[in-house]
Amino acid sequence: MATLKETLLAKIQEHRPRTQKLVKEHADVKIGEVTIGQAIGGARGVRMLVTDISYLDPFEGIRFRGKTIPETFAALPKVPKSEYPYVEAFWWFLLTGEVPTEQQTLEVVTDFQSRRAVPAYVGDMLRAMARDTHPMTMFSAAILSMQRESLFVKRYNEGMKKDEHWEPTYEDATNLLAKLPSVAAMIYRLKYKDDKQIPADPKLDFGGNFAHQMGFPKPYDDVARMYFILHSDHESGNVSAHTTHLVASALSDVYYALSAGINGLAGPLHGLANQEVLRWIMKFQEKLGGKEPTEENVKQALWDTLKAGQVIPGYGHAVLRKTDPRYIAQMEFCQKNLPNDPLFKLVNMIYKVAPGVLTEHGKTKNPWPNVDAQSGVIQWYYGLKEWDFYTVLFGVGRAIGVLANTTWDRALGYAIERPKSVTTKMLEDVASQAIKADDLGAD
Ligand SMILES: CC(C)(COP(=O)(O)OP(=O)(O)OC[C@H]1O[C@@H](n2cnc3c(N)ncnc32)[C@H](O)[C@@H]1OP(=O)(O)O)[C@@H](O)C(=O)NCCC(=O)NCCS
Predict the structure, then answer these.
(1) What is the residue with the minimal CA distance to atom 5 of ligand 1?
(2) CA dist list (Å): 251 to 162, 183, 243, 244
(3) What's this model's pTM, rounded to 2 decimal places?
(4) Where does the pLDDT of residue 443 fall: very low under 50, low under 70, confident under 90, or very high at 90 and above?
């Protein structure tokens, strides 16, 4: 039976000639053009990144290796007595594009278990930080502190060949990923549970051990598996994925690259929105002062936020133009497991009202909810009420996607990223030339 690494190598060898042919024979073929609006407006819609790991259709939402979210959940081997697949099976799937067998999955589970131990200096460093440091700062610092473990750096310094780059990157990525649930749980218990740490259970899988070290009983293990898989990858252009890719393109190792990506995820327009959703809801309930939420007072609160010049967290998206299927997957989980939860009911009420309000407001291109609008409700229900920790959960999940991508970036030898900038004067000149050309056309 081929191991994950052997299967991955075969896939890399199969894929390399495709990329080489495109670069050698078709490098000048245009795949888009860039407007002034795009140059100033965050490169929205500019086609300039390549990944085969996931693809985001504006109307259908994400597909991982060609599969929708429900197809992905259905295809992968499940943990016994659980409804959700092993994260380790998903890692295999993202890396190779193939669904692993039960036996192959268990081999990855064992491999992850053997790489799970977090170096003692990580705990020492976290304990030395101010206790009110944001958990995302701690998470990023913990990842960065482990950079000294990088095998890529060691091999690079020994003079490794370019076509070998993927191999220590894969090792670094697996070593780092296997530790992340324990690192996250350590931060959680350090900050919110008087540093009463729970040792890892060597028999458990990625999601199961995370729930165990957090101190949450079943079905939180399944919540964790679902959450990590849903948040893993959303193609390459989002801030956390793109940052990780960009930093890694300088051949910085995955510790440097992921830490940077996590810093991007910590922004309120990106991953931090899930904590902002909970904060918005709690403020809203406080204002109601015990009154029942109604569609009318929800509408009023949404308008108050918009009129104050703030965004409605959890709504809108740079690419999506319909309800995020990651939102729907979590909504279906809630319908099944917590249908009468008051917070879930309130989130549903917001879902009923907010798209209309945002449409009437007339600014956002997408008035529908994204993944962050729903995720906090589930965490809250199962007892994880410290919402400033929510983005760390997102970060553990996002690591799966970006680390798989970085491994492939190295396998295909993607170049150091270096887009070209222009000056405002250059844009003004191009714009006036375009006006002149238009005027000539009109004559
Ligand atoms: C996700 C997000 C950053 C995408 O930004 P974008 O691609 O620039 O979105 P749009 O093109 O639709 O933005 C056009 C305008 O609508 C506004 N807009 C977008 N989403 C909005 C929201 N949820 N509430 C209020 N206004 C919003 C933008 O701020 C922008 O206003 P401006 O012209 O004054 O700058 C944006 O929708 C947002 O801020 N959402 C809330 C935060 C969030 O949930 N983030 C998680 C994303 S997964």
Answers:
(1) 318
(2) 11, 25, 13, 11
(3) 0.95
(4) low
